[in-house]
Amino acid sequence: MNLFDLWMGTSQGIQGASGAAGAAGIALQLAIIIIKVAVIVGVLMVHVTWATYFERKTIGHMQVRLGPMRVGPHGFLQPIADFIKLFFKEDVIPASADKPVFFVAPVISIFATMSAVAVIPIFSGFEIADINIGLLYILAMSSLSAYGVIMAGWASNSKYSFLGGLRSSAQVISYEVAMGLSLVGVMMMAGSLNLTEIVKAQQKYPLGIFAIPQILGFFVFMVSAFAETNRTPFDLPEAESELVAGYFTEYSGMRFALFYVAEYIGMIGMSLVAITCFLGGWTGPFHIPYVPFAWLLIKLYLMIFLFYWVRATVPRYRYDQLMKLGWKFLIPLALFNIVLTGAVKLLVKA
Amino acid sequence: MNPIVFGYLAAAILLLSLLAVTNKNPVHAILLVIVMFFHMAVMYIGLGAEFLAAVQVIVYAGAILVLFLFVVFVLNIREETGGERFSSVWPFGLSIATGLLLLAVILSGKVRLGAMGPYTPQVIAAETHTKILGRVLYTDYILPFEISSLILLVAVVGAITLAGREDR
Fold first, then answer.
1. How far apart are CA A187 and CA A331, in angstroms?
2. What is the pLDDT of residue A9?
């Protein structure tokens, strides 16, 4: 019986239980959930802050530069300086902007990316919400992230923003199809949409991961994840040589920072989904004592490094190539993967 | 479902729909509809239909309304917001709506519930909604399911043919 049942009154227990005991139970469950949310959001924000530093350092060294060096040892405190700068910057709102939509767009962006993290099992038995349709919930939340972008692009009332917003929403919608289809193979192998069940189902396979039998699905998912988070080589919505900064051209100060944070949370969220669905979640080749989430963090850092590595290596796609890749290559490949998975599953069973 | 939760959801859905219909700015209207769809998704969860709730958000909020937004973006907002709130035939529409409402109120006392099926809330909670829905769809309702997918396929092929006609 979880909190949602209590709140909805769908569970049999709560209708019988009444008075102080029931109320205390609800308060306790609520307190536990709030603490979990605070811990995860706090850890997430720290990771986002230093992910920017990690990115600049990684790309700097790949391009034989040093990256930020001035603030703190090896520039380690640079993110804090950046944050102070953004916080005290003037918040400029274009005169002809649609103000309510302009204000709410970055909030939707950050809400959509952050709420997907709520169902990720950090380690065995620790997640904010253990729901039956975890994977579908993640797809639903990631489909909402298009709204933040599309609304920001429209509400700014600027040509660059509008074109960036249109590009981005078309890209996100196209690649969402490929991403959803690539996860179907995982659902078929695990026989569940619950993320904890998916992690447990992977233990029967070599190395405890789905990435080997689902190599096609993993490939399609990773390419789609790059497109979904608007990262290089698919960062056309913010192609600075054509569209200034794309959909958030007109944003400044804290609102700009919200979009920036949403992009990094989106990247971390996509990495966590990939880790949970394809790379065995919190489990690893051997047990690390006292730190149950150690493997998850190691895998997360490697995934984030992959995002930066690709950014430093691969040039940007042209827009028609991007659409062609999505619709004519990734979606058929993901469909083939579904057929293949089903056929192999039937043959092995027989 | 908890009556307070249901009351809130029902009121919010009604209010948001009314606001969406009466709003002159089409973009704001669509955004109100999105919020309304979220309330409907929560309503589905309260009824134990978690798969429907997820699909409601993925398909309606995530895909169809984005396409609506694309279309609305092409409109000239200043022109759209300048005109009358309702078209000139609104008394006609209102009288039909009122008549239907009256009919619903009169007939609501006469409704008889059918026999209860095998899927009670307890069965659904034990086996999960998604699993049951998938099984029923692919066994008992396989023929209607296949027919509807064929209809959608025909629509897709038709759309591609219409869009690609100039190339030939």
1. 17
2. 47
What is the domain class of B1-102 according to CATH? Answer: mainly alpha
Q: What confidence score (pLDDT) does residue A148 get?
A: 82
Q: Give the mutation candidate from B2, B30, B42 for the A interface (greatest A CB count, under 10 A).
A: B2
Q: What is the pTM of this model?
A: 0.84
**Partner B contacted by A15 (CB < 8 A):** no
Domain coordinates of chain A in residue numbers? 91-349
Mean pLDDT of A312-326: 85
Nearest residue on chain B to A193, alpha-carbon basis: B130
Q: Which of A261, A259, A266 is CA-nearest to residue A231? A: A266
CB A190, CB A197: distance < 8 Å = yes
Instruction: Report pLDDT for A13.
Output: 41
Q: Rounded CA gap, A158 and A161, in Å? A: 5
Q: How far apart are CA B59 and CA B68, in angstroms?
A: 13
10 Å CB burial of residue A161 (0-12, 13-18, 19+) is buried
Using the predicted structure, report yes or no on whether residue A77 has a pLDDT greater than 50: yes
What residue spans define the domains of chain B?
1-102, 119-168
In sign, the C-alpha dihedral spanning A298, A300, A304, A307 is positive
Average pLDDT over residues A199-218: 84
pLDDT per residue over B52-107, tens digit each?
888 888 888 888 888 888 777 777 666 666 667 777 788 898 899 999 999 999 88
**Cα separations (Å) of A102 from A105, A155, A162, A247, B104?**
6, 5, 12, 11, 41
Instruction: Please spell the DSSP secondary structure of B48-84, one letter per residue.
Output: T-HHHHHHIIIIIIIIIHHHHHHHHHHS-HHHHHHS-
| Helices B65-74, A159-190: crossing angle, 10 deg rounding | 170
Contacts of B9 (CB under 8 A, 6+ apart): B39, B40, B42, B43, B46
ipTM summary value: 0.78
| B129 part of contact set with chain A, CB < 8 Å | yes
- Classify burial at B150, counting beta carbons within 10 Å of its beta carbon; exposed 0-12, middle 13-18, buried 19 or more: exposed
How crowded is residue A338: how many other Cβ atoms within 10 Å of its Cβ?
A: 17
> pLDDT of B148-165, one tens digit each?
999 999 999 998 888 876
Structure tokens at B86: 């309702």
What pLDDT does A316 receive? Answer: 82
**C-beta atoms of A136 and B5 within 8 A:** no
Q: Nearest Cβ partner of B50 from A100, A133, A169?
A: A133
Partner-chain contact B34 A147, CB within 8 Å:
yes
Is there a contact between B45 and A162 if contact means CB atoms under 8 Å apart? no
> Sign (positive/negative) of CA torsion B34, B35, B37, B38?
positive
Token digits of residue A127: 């997640």
